[in-house]
Amino acid sequence: MYFYDVIIPRPVDRLFTYQFENLLECGTRVLVDIKGGVTPAVIYKLVDDPQYECKNIITIIDLEKPFFNSKYLQLIENISNSYYCSLGEALEALFNKKLLMSNFSKGRKSKEIINKFYSKNPYLSKTLEINNDKILFRALKKGDLVNLYENNNIDERIEHYLYIINHYLFEGKQIKIICSDQSLCEYFVHKVSEVLSCRVEAFYSSRKLSFKKMYINLYNEGELKVLIGTRSILGIPGRSEGLIILENEEDEFYKQEESPCLQFRNVAIIYAKILNVPLILGSSMPSTESLYLAKEGVYNYIYCDKHPKVKENAIKVIDMKSSDAISNILSTELYDVLYNNIKNNCKSVIISNKKGFSKHLVCLHCGEKLMCDRCYIQATYYKSKNYCKCNYCGSTIDLICKSCGEKDFFDLGFGLEHIEEILNKLFNKKIIKIDSDDLRDDTKDFEMSDKIIKGEYDILLGTFVILRRFKNLLVSTGAILGIDDLLSLPDFRIYEKTMKLLFKFVGHIDSFSSAENFYIQSYDNELILFKFLKEGKESFYNYEIKRRKAYRYPPFVRLVRVILSSNKNIGLSESIQYLAEELKKIEGIEVIGPSAAPVFVLRNYFRYNFLIKSFEEKALKESISLIKSTYLKIKKGNMKCKIDIDPYFFI
């Protein structure tokens, strides 16, 4: 009888020992019994007889060879060490539990995909006009594993990627292309399929389970050479991986909200070093943290900028404090521009980052605001469907005042629906409104995208999501409404995130449109961010890095956010106060707080939080250990403790 420690994809800080009559290799997937239920597990290591009764392994899923190799197990170990989580949590974050217990086998469809891939030469089928003397290829030949590649034009970046991909395909290597969202995946699929003359599908969460199983099997067997998808593909083990490309490395999508709150950009760096393969972190505007490390020599820095700058006089900031405004929404100056555009058959795009009709409703009788029943926030009113919705938990709220029971409200603030209503009254022309809710309906999404691509509109109105979805729109004028609201969020990265949107909007990076004139409505036309629109990215980076250093934020410290939550508020503030006071005894850290979270109640859970700034890794490790041990002492009922290392979300 052989005894094995197995990794179970659950948040438990221990390994479990099981027995089996035959010798099994590490990385083999099995099914085991835990608390009367069958769950998948992975053989971690062979151990001596523990001298106590062990349960039997129920089933061996991988009969021929282990699904996970030793390097993948090393990745799980390194994630566990970096994020101070259990091996089970690391495995659960990397590989879907339902897929973990699946039998992967080749089917007729799998053979069709492979035959289609190899029916034509799976290498470059047309000559690429590689600029800058193959700058990326020459840089990779230096042998650096982590490469930050900054290029202002996404099409140029993809062109350079394809040249590199071709090189690794000739060497028989597998390539992973990780994208920040589904639309970017599809754009890469289009470009790669066009150049390689073979269809390469994208892998993301909304795909059917059968599709996922098939592609996981093909990549794991080494038969699928190019895998394109969102962050989840990083956890799919390959047979001969030679290159990892992570596009839009600065995107917050790579940060996982659920425990253990992995930053998949950092996970990609860990994996590339374990595999000893190059990683390309591509971006038009790298994160401040990555750019700092690149300029300090920690990463290999590759910079390419051939994209023309927007003329300074093309950007007009409209001071809303001194401007006449229609319904307090649209300045008369912008109205004149839109009117002339329609008159001259020119198209315009308007961006505002608020969904619905209004930010919230107020009771006409008692003055109470209509709030979400599950979260301590104001509900957003959608006039088109005559209901209110919580933008955090998704709940719909009845249009009845919780205080006095009346149904009469007036609205405050404006959203896309309100802007659309005003524009229709003013111009009565073709207006297309698009936000993230519209994109969830595949049929509606396709219809709107088709109309936008064909130019069947006079004004395109949307949230900032359209900056991610579309590029090179044939419009003459762009406008942003309510830019000030973005800067009110409690996030030390908010300047960086806002500048990325502004730079993309006005054409400094990843051309969103062909617009020649840009209008930004603001109640503070002296915002320092407007200065950087003229001076460029380098000027902003220098300002931001000085600001981060002065206030001691990443990359100069490690940051941890601790959230204590419970469905009962009694004693919760005292518990987190005790936890914070215990941590303040540790040298080498700074504790900020505790306080109520910005969204105090979320999905019926009361929430308190505090931040830890750590100046050395030893102090951070000691802090995490103390948080876990202290939490076990103070835990009552269904209290939860979330430890978010290197947080991106502060709501």
Task: Report on the architecture of this protein.
Helix 1 (70-83) crosses helix 2 (87-94). Strand 19 and strand 20 (387-389) form a beta hairpin. The chain is built from 21 helices and 30 strands. It folds into 4 domains: 2-100, PriA, 3(prime) DNA-binding domain (GIY-YIG endonuclease, 3-Layer(aba) Sandwich), CATH 3.40.1440; 108-304, Rossmann fold (3-Layer(aba) Sandwich), CATH 3.40.50.300; 312-357 and 414-546, P-loop containing nucleotide triphosphate hydrolases (Rossmann fold); 558-645, 7,8-Dihydro-6-hydroxymethylpterin-pyrophosphokinase HPPK (Alpha-Beta Plaits), CATH 3.30.70.560. The strands form 7 sheets. The protein has a 7-stranded parallel β-sheet with strand order 9-10-8-11-12-7-13, with helices on both faces. Strands 5-2-1-4-3-6 form a 6-stranded mixed β-sheet. The model has no long low-confidence stretch (mean pLDDT 89). It is globular, with a radius of gyration of 27 Å. The chain is α/β, with parallel strands linked by helices.
